[in-house]
Amino acid sequence: MLSVERLDRSLAFYAGLLGGQQAYRFPPEGEPVFVVLRIGDSEIGLGQLGSSPPLHGQPQRPALGHRIELCVPVDDLDVLVARLRAADLPILLEPTQQPWGERVAYAADPDGNLVMLTQ
Questions:
Q1: CA 100 to the chain's CA centroid
Q2: Could you state, in order of their start, the residue ranges of all structural domains in the chain?
Q3: Is the pLDDT of residue 63 over 60?
Q4: β 103-108/114-118 pair status
């Protein structure tokens, strides 16, 4: 689960650009504060920051650095990178062939989380 600043921007990225399909939302009616998206065989939860106090009582944002890196397999890396660029999202690494056989690109989601796109 990712805590996000603006759920609408994150849904535009993970559902609109990466093709995630809604599997769950809360509340079921009106503006959601939590959504689960299915991307391929995986699911990711997106929770709106500040919608309620965190159950664990800890800050929901690290002070510095990246604690996670999401990996999303895609069918056409070049087409997706072009769509992300057109949406003014940062491309941190252009599609690059890796020695293990995959082509990889890195982007940042609207909250700055690292997303490795693989083909």
A1: 24
A2: 2-56+66-118
A3: no
A4: antiparallel
